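Weekly modeling sync, notes
Attendees: S.R. (lead), two postdocs, one rotation student

Agenda item 3: backlog of single-chain predictions. S.R. asked that every request posted to the team notebook include the full sequence so nobody has to chase files. The rotation student volunteered to paste the first one in as an example of the format we agreed on. Action items at the bottom.

Example entry:
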Amino acid sequence: MLKLEVTRDGHRHTVSFSTEAQALAYVGPRRSTYYFDLLSDIPKDWHRISDMLYPKCHHQMDASMCMDPYGPHHFGTAEWERQQYGDW
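Predicted structure, as returned to the notebook:
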């Protein structure tokens, strides 16, 4: 079972799912306009919902924090940052 707190425009509610298919059907169309917070652990065999809620970059780390989406470094090196942003 998976339990999520769902937030949009300051309104919050709690939803529970007994199957991964239910969770995917609910979260999929809402993932770009709603915020989801876990209220329980994601069951270990529910890989697709885990990937949907927490996508990974090609470095196999949190995609939202990837600074170098095409290169070899997840956080970027000092040289890479200078190339991207110039000298500080």
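Discussion: group reviewed the output briefly. The chain has three helices and three strands.
Action items: rotation student to repeat for the remaining queue; S.R. to check formatting next week.
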